Amino acid sequence: MTTFGKITALLDEQQAEYRVVEHDAIGQTDLISDIRGNALNQAAKAMVLEVTMPEGAEARYLLAIVPGDCKINFKRAARAIGGKKSSFAPPEIAQTLTDCQMGAVPPFSFDERLVLRVDARLRDVGTLWFNAGVLEKSIALAVKDYFRVVGDNCCADIATPMAITA
Q: pTM value?
């Protein structure tokens, strides 16, 4: 089953309120938000991070979800799962863990090796917008349903607002 199929099956099973939007294949948060018509803070940016764990433990992988108007705080993201530091995972590992090309990664983990953490700022956006496993499809999902599906225990302070330039 495709990642898109897994997402819609999960949302249907959970009776979530969502809609699918088809558009040009664009993997840039700011550009796709303009096309979809959503505010940048409603866009869920998904990043796969490699987290260095303490005491020589094996590295772990984190699916970090931050608002489109923020950037990842690598140190806080690592700490959110008990790690020391984090960096972007190698693209081939990220693609394997998400079964998606970069730019299309949704805010759901379907691989037990990929721990999910969502920045708490996304709790208050009303509708969450995200790429749905492919670059040409997005989903608009009621944020209350998103957190009902993924659980409240995945929230963490892992983002830093981006400076606005004139």
A: 0.93
In whole angstroms, what is the distance from residue 2 CA to residue 125 CA? Answer: 27
Cβ density class 97-111: b for 16+ within 10 Å, e for less: bbebbebbbbbbbbe
162: its two tokens: 């981006």
Closest CA to 106 of 146, 59, 158: 146
| Residue for token pair 């950037």 | 71
The distance in angstroms from the start CA to the end CA of the chain is 44
User: Could you tell me which of 19, 125, 23 has the C-alpha nearest to residue 70?
Assistant: 125
Decide if 73 contacts 158 (C-beta within 8 A).
yes
Give ∠ CA 117-118-122 in degrees, rounded to 5: 175
- List, for residues 59-87, the tens digit of each pLDDT value: 999 999 999 999 999 999 999 999 999 99
- C-beta separation of 82 from 53 below 8 A: yes
